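Working notes for the structural subgroup meeting. M.R. asked for a predicted model of this chain before we commit to crystallization trials. I am recording the input and output together here so anyone reviewing the notebook later can reproduce the run.

Input as submitted:
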Amino acid sequence: MKAVILAAGKGTRMKNLTAECPKPMLKVHGKPILRHIVDGLKENGITDFCFIVGWHAEVIQDYFGDGSGMGIHVTYVRQVSQDGTGKAAELAKDFVGGDDFLLSYGDILVRPDTYSQVIRRYRSGNYAGAITVTAGEDVTKGGLLFFDEDFCLKRLVEKPSQEQLAQLRSEGWIVEGKPVWYNAGIYIFKPILFDFTAKLQKSPRGEYELTDAISAHYENGLRLAGQEIEGRWVDVRDPETLAALEAQS
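Returned structure, recorded in token form:
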């Protein structure tokens, strides 16, 4: 299995912290976020990486090089136009070839065994991919996911408004006392993902959204297995989150 890491964005919510540095290269306990991700995946036998780079790409390239010093192989693809996560992922098509691949945003921190859990879940059945979730997050900031009785994805609502949430409650999608699942940003896909990214239309935000390509899986009868993340999951989205991580032992 290969790995594709989306690391092209500036991370505007980090303010001056990313003026000269891409967000995935901000340090947590002396090590870049991206290095934590790479080390965790390497522990699970993944050594072939594609970094989708953009903002200050040279910082990432200078640190990792070709990866040989870390026992991995790194390919770089530059996202010239910052037009959304859907098209960013599509840039890895040639790298992926015919292989399954794990895709992660470059600012998501989890324990190494989280990767083994999602890989195991993906391999447990005839799935087109796997998608990780966590509970207790503000779904208006990300994806709200619904699953069937086999915990396979059946609906995804990206950044729902309060009005949409009220409607989902009235329709019985959101039920009091049951988990509300938040997209945790780590996936496994087969190359068929690129069939869907190629057909993406811009969202109301003016971007090509990876979540639209994810939705296209179940809309075309393909099953994506869900996997709840157990233990640490951190979206390093702002300076406050970064400071809290640094304060932890």
